[in-house]
Protein 1
Amino acid sequence: MPAMDSLPPASTSSLALEPIGYARTGLVTKVDAPRQPRAARGVPGRIELLPGRNFEHALVDLDGWDYVWVIFWFHLNPSWRPKVLPPRSTSGRKGVFSTRAPHRPNPLGLSALRLERIEGLTLHLLDVDLVDGTPVLDIKPYVPYTDAHPGARSGWLDSGATPGAAPPDPVASHAVDIEASVEARIAWVESRSGLALRERILATLSMGPEPHPYRRIRPDGSAFVLSVKEWRVRFTVDGTRVRVVGLGSGYRTSQLDQPRAGEDPALVLHREFVATFGAAA
């Protein structure tokens, strides 16, 4: 057996990886991205594989699987941290290797995503938690009999919960009600943007109003405001019940007043929203 302190072979001291394609999603920033596919339930996205590399042959037979493992590069993280604060931690920072945090020595990510269909070199997926433009390094089928271990321990996430069950969030679960007028606004946005806004609102607010690095929530008088991309969701809290009472644009009036050639399509959408529903959330 070689000595433990011997240097690795030169061929493995530096490894080269190339993207096989890129994720295309409605998640623009790290803050937009849900922390796990489970929190992105129903969020659509796609992976566009690069042409001219025989990937159309590599995709043969993949459409028979319900889930795929997607291995990707956290391209928006320039550095790593040996300890991080996960959203479910109630006892301080954890070693990064005991978490799924993106701040890793090699910023590799792994997500099990639902495969909806394949069209040419494009994989249409659901439960997508990848930021738009994420480099994809590999795709593998999710094989239930070997990949699922329901009784396995969950390290620091275990706190008397049933083995294999989802651990509780560090805050009590909240019931979320959305007023009918806000439902109409959400449906309007979703029909024109493809953003799974309702799912994002429910997933975030079910954890309650407490601010956290992964949730863009701020107090606003007697209420709170949640930011989802450029949208502002106004809600109130009574015990463990959250009531969503408003939805508005996060753009300033001055940004929406004067249309300009070549402007961001998001501005056009928000301008139409304000013209339809008014500026107030």
Protein 2
Amino acid sequence: MSQSKPGGGRGAVIDAVLRWRELSILVVALILVAYFEAANTDFLLSDASLQNLSQFVAPAAIIACGEIMLMIGGEIDLSAGMVFALTPFVMHFAHQAGVPLLPAVVLALIASALIGLCNGLITVTLLVPSFITTLGTNFLLNGVTLTLSHGTPVEAPEDPIFAAIFGNWGYSEIIWAVAVVAVMHTVLRRTRWGLHTIAAGANPVGASEAGIRVNRLKIGNFMLAAVLAGLTGVLESFRISSIDPQAGGNSIMFLAVAAGVIGGTPLAGGSGTILGGLIGAFVLGVLSDGFTLIGVNAFMFNIILGAAILAAMLFNIHVGRLRRLGAMR
């Protein structure tokens, strides 16, 4: 008859955290929801609050999916925010030129993919660090967007049904986000592309020697990140019925990266979680809306966000070490 080891319950909890990296941030999210709901009963019980929360979470979660794929491979895209700002203008000008609305959106997303292709080619063929490549692209695209728009917002195309599907209805953006997360989670965990991305991020040389086309994977992930950023820009333009060249592109990009990091994806590469990115975006949304409802100064959000990123990085490093030790035993 087997006997349980002392501390076995605690060991089981630690093993669960190590196996399911989203567990810890999910617990944090539930604690935050309970706290803000106790502080203000309108936090999640009103339709308006739920819509506000979902509209904060969705853009960061969608862009985070692309950023997480890049971070797993040891790269990052700092230009995603400017792709987010430029893509709706490409759609707008194509539609003005007589292209039907859906093909105009497709053309805009193709333009986003081409930007991602350029980022990827510069990074892998010229060996420029992706931080530098996309930092330069970020400023370049910002200038292009301001030049094309003359720094002036324009109205989103008027099509009630299309607009409702693409962001204008209160919950359409979060539905898009959940769908994108579901697809990308499957890609990361169940397909050769995702598994090879993890392998390439953990050991690029070993992955290349094993026959994995590391450079092609990286270029594909740069294109994916740009397309998701462009899609988010289109969704946001229909949600607010306006296309603004200065609509916070950089802030949404950093929120997406923060969501990925808080959700359990280290910047060092080799591991990551799409579901964690969604939960991380939810945590950021809860903090933002919760502080607003209980009357805390908005500047506190940046303080908490910075502390959360640092804490998440320290936690990820520590858990990574424990996971490696467990694998060696």
Protein 3
Amino acid sequence: MSLSRYRLFASAAALFLTPTLAFAAPQVVVSIKPVHSLVAALMQGVGEPSLIVEGTASAHTYSLRPSHARALENADLVFWVGPGLEAFLEKPLDALAGKATVVELEDAPGLVRLPFREGGAFETHEDEGEDAHAGGEDHAAQDDHDAPEDHATEDHTGDEHGHAHEHEGFDMHFWLDPMNAKAMAAEIESALVTADPANAARYKANGLALAQEIDTLDKEIFSALAPVKDKPSVVFHDAYQYFENRYKVRIAGSITVSPETMPGAERVAEIHAKVKELQAVCVFAEPQFEPKLISVVTEGTDAKAGRLDPEGGALDAGPALYPELMRNLAKSLIDCLSK
């Protein structure tokens, strides 16, 4: 090839490649699987976000790896729920993610936030959050980011086990209410559009499709849970308040408030008594924690053992994880409570 023809070819190649480079996806890092699933759904056709808490690991007890530190250093955007759930990320974000826009999703407009519940035995909040969580209603107000009434009324600084409840005592498992997932997705979409306006149309189209999928999922779960929602059960740790409040299922107590701290004998005895008193149908463990306490709590009762996975630890990361996680929670409850 002559030199002149080579230069012409190189110039044409450069012109061809320039638009591709202009539309390159931002480097996005996400803390946990449920949030990663929402981000991945919004980024379909543009790029793939990186995930920090992989496999069945728990955000409550996670330690950052060197590969994740490098990802944070190179990130353009970081999405996390907040320090009340992912305390292990607070210092690394300050130290490593200096060039990134960090989006704390607990501050998403329209998010319904519920206060921590103290103590191991509790009953469903029958009147709490009726307007914000009524099944099958039009949620246009939340879709438009009109924030509902804030449910947090107290600032719990800790519990009897020494677990520090951060951020004014809010329960941080927001995604277990699909309407909260929609609010988080809207905030994620806004951040992606701001960071990457060249792909704004794709993010917005994906956001509309995701919102519609979540609405369909929500109605499906309401219908599926209706036959068993009044049967009492006990969970390993109090991670399901948003799911419970949304679908009015009857979770009567938790073995521990904090998964970092195993409960003492007094608390185990309290829950055991509650299981017997309520004739609880099921006691649920989690894949991240394999407590022998379940057998202790159910000993001498008719309660069966089940398993719930609130963070999708046993699922493959990606766009399909969030709806699969929610369907699996409903299915696990139905399978155990229907027997």
